[in-house]
From TrEMBL:
The keyword Transferase applies. Coiled coil: none annotated. It comes from Hydrogenibacillus schlegelii. This is Glucosyl-3-phosphoglycerate synthase. InterPro entries: Glyco_trans_2-like, Glycosyltransferase_2, Nucleotide-diphossugar_trans. It catalyses: (2R)-3-phosphoglycerate + UDP-alpha-D-glucose = (2R)-2-O-(alpha-D-glucopyranosyl)-3-phospho-glycerate + UDP + H(+); an NDP-alpha-D-glucose + (2R)-3-phosphoglycerate = (2R)-2-O-(alpha-D-glucopyranosyl)-3-phospho-glycerate + a ribonucleoside 5'-diphosphate + H(+). Keywords: Glycosyltransferase, Magnesium, Transferase. One of its GO terms (molecular function) is glycosyltransferase activity. It is an enzyme of class 2 (transferase). Its cofactor is Mg(2+). Signal peptide: none annotated. The keyword Glycosyltransferase applies. Residues 2-134 form the Glycosyltransferase 2-like domain. Its EC number is 2.4.1.266.
Length: 240
């Protein structure tokens, strides 16, 4: 079981996330992908956080660095292709100690009930994010006929074989989750959505937060354009 955590300027929140994972050592491999953070993620701090609460013997913790910020999708792609697990868990870096809940994501995989599990987080009132979530859900539905409650959720557990096939398509920044939905459904793998009370950083309605959402919207559009151009028309990117 591999866990991949892409991180960009996540600071202490990243180390809290790793402590949460250490509290539930269901994984054998943990890969943190530092997407050009300034200051860089500390390998010593990662090791200390990940093993602070006694992860199982034989667990591997690795830090993979990208020299400059290339976006969430590139960080995910890099971590996926570096991973060795038969099952792969994708988690955001800002979950804090609620990352311990990720153990619940893998249970349907191990029980052979699903190959792709997505966490549905509690609604964040006033986060200004609902319109983009609805836009992504509608875009996925129009292309696949399946409506997802949490199309932008970064908390996922997926079978390693199909995920590695899809990895080259994920280099679309914050559009990676939208692309994952589309490729999974194209290959007949319907995501199983499960409610989990992960905690994450609230962006609010500051100018910086609005700019962040604008970049997310741009990247979702990039993902849709890339899917329509490369996958629907030519069958590219690991056609199942």
């Amino acid at each position: 079981m591999s866990v991949i955590v892409p991180a960009y300027n996540a600071g202490d929140r990243l180390y809290a996330t790793l402590r949460g994972l250490a509290a539930r050592p269901f994984w054998e491999e943990l890969i943190v992908v530092d997407d050009g953070s300034r200051p860089p993620v500390s390998p010593e701090a990662i090791a200390a956080a990940a093993f602070r609460q006694g992860s199982r013997a034989g667990s591997s913790v690795r830090l993979v660095r990208l020299p400059v910020n290339r976006g969430k999708g590139r960080a995910l792609m890099t971590g996926i292709l570096e991973s060795r697990g038969a099952w792969i868990v994708l988690l955001d870096a800002d979950l804090g100690e609620s990352a311990a809940l990720a153990e619940a994501l893998v249970r349907p995989l191990l029980a052979r009930e699903a190959e792709h599990v997505v966490a549905v987080l509690p609604p964040a009132l006033g986060d200004g994010f609902g319109w983009l979530r609805r836009f992504s859900a509608r875009a996925v539905w129009r292309r696949t006929g399946v409506w997802l409650k949490a199309p932008l959720s970064g908390q996922r557990a997926i079978a390693g074989a199909p995920l590695r096939r899809w990895a080259p398509a994920l280099d679309v920044g914050y559009g990676a989750e939208t692309m994952l939905n589309l490729l999974s459904l194209r290959d007949g793998i319907v995501p199983l959505e499960v409610p989990l009370p992960f905690d994450h950083r609230r962006l609010g309605r500051t100018p910086a937060a609005m700019w962040h959402r604008a970049r997310q919207a741009r990247d979702v559009l990039r993902a849709l354009w890339a899917y329509d151009r490369r996958v629907r028309r030519s069958g590219g990117w690991g056609d199942g």
